[in-house]
Amino acid sequence: VEVKIEVVIPEKERSKEEMSPNGKASPLIYKVNGTARHYHLEEHPIASNPYHNPKDVVEASVCHVKDLENGQMREVDLGCGKALLIKESGEFHAVGHKCPHYGAPLVKGVLSKGRVRCPWHGACFNIGTGDIEDFPGLDSLPRFQVKIEKEKVYIRASKQALQTQRRTKMMAKCISLSNYNLSSTNVLIIGAGAAGLVCAETLRQEGFSDRIVMCTMDRHLPYDRPKLSKSMDSHPEQIALRPKEFFRTYDIEVLTEMQVAAVDIKNKTAVFKDGFKMEYNKLLIATGNTPKALSCKGKEVENVFNIRTPEDANRVVKLATSKNVVIVGASFLGMEVAAYLTERAHSVSLVELEEVPFKKFFGERVGRAVMKMFESNRVKFYMQTEVSELREQEGKLKEVVLKSGKVLRADVCVVGVGAVPATGFLKQSGINIDSKGFVVVNKMMQTNIPGVFAAGDAVTFPLALRNNKKVNVPHWQMAHMHGRIAALNMLAHGMEISTVPYLWTAMFGKSIRYAGHGEGFDDVVIQGDLDELKFVAFYTK
């Protein structure tokens, strides 16, 4: 018996096919601050309607109706590409089979309550619409039409969608951009990481058609920051989250190398370091954090790096090749950099104040197992000590001196000793900042100031699964979700955050995935084999 899949355009997207007499899509109306505004819906080229070209559509019988039980998924081949066929509550659904984030096979993921969750990094998709509902990643899955005929299941799909395996949600465009005053915007987003970008995209997806300006101290458009320590020789354009044309198409303006020095909440104005001022109606603070520097003697020596930009990462790889590397701090960044450089460098040494890596986060037993894996890959650990001096020769780093008295040869040093929230510019603003410098927000990502929102690594927010305890969760996935929730609440949707935190780290071909928030655990229950690194650890209290 065969299964058949067909691409269906949801009602929402079909409306753009209804043309107005002049041949352009009829504009829809969206209210911003009570004013009716017109906008035209645009769609990313990869999400084009498959029915424009009948040659682009493929239909195939893929299985018998009894081949799948409820709650089962199967990857099926339509000849020119694959789809994921799902049966839940007696109904068949078909969507793209690869996660749009890094291409993981979703058939190995988890199906639960109408959603499929990616096996690698936890992104989550609605099986009925294909829409992304948890992050990381920006795109949704294409959805294909399924029909049952004579006990056979058929899928009808666009060849293009089968090949791209992703769908960018429909977005509004800004109306009459040329009429704007350069020094005022409806939405100003400070920071161009995941939180800032998802906020801007969500506003456009929800039909917001006014001006959006993002500003960043970085010289690049938003990029995939986790790759800086996991894939250090990536160039900026290889890790860009969206191409340049995307920002032009959807009128999301990005001001690069622009630093905000102060925010005047009374006059709703951001003051930039160069004196430029910009008025806003709604503000998102998504500045992330700033790496801590070493405070020892010789800290200004050349070839000592905090990895903050693609250029930093590229430079470290170049300098480390066949040379001696010292990494200070067994943080996620420090450990990932150590793992990446072992095959390239002559030697890799890691200096850490704790007795085992990740002790506060993963506990001592898991930390030790990870340390053992590193030692078997030639990484030398110097634990329970810190750096007392960086010595140079002709201005360049030559040796790292430890407080224990040990002297390490070093041509390059990477510092990963933690970070502080990049919120210094808000000190006199009246926006509520806690004693550690984090911006305090509620479940809707709102600060104490109306119209001012904050998201990402620089905030503390109430975590639903820990009885609304105020926490800071500096994970890539969480930054995406913060940006989405902030955008929806700028549009007065009243949406609260309830996401489960999730992070992953990858080292020597092994990946550790962590769900939840285990801060304050007093016992670790381990199932499986720690020595083989095939285990699950439960953090309990």
TrEMBL record:
Protein keywords: 2Fe-2S, FAD, Flavoprotein, Iron, Iron-sulfur, Metal-binding, Oxidoreductase
Residues annotated as domain Rieske: 60-155
Listed transmembrane segments: none
Top-level taxon: Eukaryota
UniProt-listed InterPro entries: FAD-oxidoreductase/Apoptosis, FAD/NAD-bd_sf, FAD/NAD-binding_dom, FAD/NAD-linked_Rdtase_dimer_sf, Rieske_2Fe-2S, Rieske_2Fe-2S_sf
Pfam family, one: Rieske
Record flagged with keyword Transferase: no
GO biological process per UniProt: execution phase of apoptosis
MF-aspect GO terms: 2 iron, 2 sulfur cluster binding; metal ion binding; oxidoreductase activity, acting on NAD(P)H
A GO cellular-component term linked to this record: mitochondrion
PANTHER family linked to this entry: APOPTOSIS-INDUCING FACTOR 1, APOPTOSIS-INDUCING FACTOR 3
UniProt record similarity statement: Belongs to the FAD-dependent oxidoreductase family.
Protein name per the record: AIFM3 factor
Species of the source: Nyctibius grandis
